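Figure-free illustration: sequence to structure, shown twice.
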Amino acid sequence: MPNIVAPFSTTAAAAEPPPAPALDPRPAVLLLHGLCANPLEMMPLARALRDAGYVVEAPALDGYGVVPPVAGAPAPARRRAVPPFEAWVEMAAAHFDALAARHARVAVGGLSMGAVLTLALALERPAAALMLLSTSLHFDGWNVSPWRRLLPLAYVPPLRQWLSFRETPPYGIKNERLREWVAQAMNASHVSAAGADRLPAASLHQASRLIRHVRRNLHQIAAPAVVLHASEDDVSGARSVLELQRRLGTTPEVHWFHHSYHMLTLDNERGAVTQTARQFLLRQVPVAAPAERFSL
């Protein structure tokens, strides 16, 4: 009877796996937008960092942000079901991991609730540096209604599934012309570069849970951090900055801006804000010179 069993080849068994592809020497930056917002608010900072040589990703996080409608479409932005804040962190971590698979160092930055999400991600992943803009550990800015303290009552099911709260002027923007543009965009499509016109109670409930989680664990975060905050922040006052200074596991670099409101990346001092963030990142996560960057 013929031998139908193929001979065993030791050559294939002994073959070594192919080497892993070399990491891109350019550092990467993950930018996280705010609650019920979208990546448009991060674009000025993203452009400045790309110009400095960083690879930048500013994703839209499903169930956390609000996707703007297609240009010219009359339909309002579509809100999806709100997942628990742990899912927000997992989505951010997935983007971080994708960047870390290609780049040796990954920094993270965020605006407003995106800064809180940045801190939560730093508890889960080895971020090379953190950029915390308008960090909202407390909603105590001058434009926050005193009735806000009753907000937890809206978190009770089923109320949180159908209640929402309308955003009011100045929409985090001190620049009057830009504020008018934001108001027009919100009236036309319910969302603008500064975020959505309404905040669902379900989103605020998960944001509250995220804040509590981060505040309990601030001492565990040791990555280098820069804090950028408006002295006239209409959403989150100085208390958030003071808590970061007091409780972070590292001593943050703090910069105050005196001619802007909450939306630092869009408002009057956006140029100074992006320059300050970029200079911090260049010190903490330097970009290789062109000759070094592309050497073989």
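We now fold a second protein in the same way, so the two outputs can be compared directly.
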Amino acid sequence: MSHVHLPDGVVPAIWWAAGYLISLIVVFAVLKRLNMEKVRGKIPEMAMMAAVMLITMSVPLGFIPFHMNFAALAGMLMGPGLGFVVVFVVNFILALLGHGGITVMGLNTLIIGVEALVGGAAFRLLRGKFGSVPSAIISTAVALLLSTALMILFLSSIGVVDIQSGGGILHGGYHAEDGVDGHEAEKPHRHDTEYIFGGVALAGWAAVMAVLFLGIILESVVTALVVSFFMKVRPDIINPVPDKDR
């Protein structure tokens, strides 16, 4: 759900360098800890998950300025660690396609990767007590709220959005100029934070909260439906790769 749509040259070097460093450290730590023989067996599933994320992140829903990314779902299906690796690969491809600058790839990996880490970990923690579908809904909602909060705090810290009024928060402060898919030309221009809901024009934080509410409900429900489907036909998919010592 959360994604920083900033072209190169907007984010200070200290921020994007730290984003790259931390994201690479996390990827290295994940791959170092997991059983690589089992990871190799998961590569086809990881590739399919990355393809699904690329499609959903590139398709605007139309009725709300929001697109699903299924990072939390990746954490549930692949495990939190491999889910983060999938997010890294997806952001690398998106950066090459101009969906956000190359320099913000690391930051986007961290922001969206939180959804995979939190969503996957929370799902495994709650599944035994609440069941798969309720756990998927709760885990996705918590993961999306946390990643959105991190995105807003980051954009506010570099002065791209006004956290008091909520201005510029929708679409990550800046977004591509309108094109065929809405992501063709990453030229910086600020969007007014406005949203028409039920015939009522909302602005500022009211618009942000309306979009956030609808987006979280939508992605949480769709994620739960996908998890429910896999639990019926391929429950073996929803198993994390074991550590090396297992």
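Summary for the second example: The mean pLDDT is 80.
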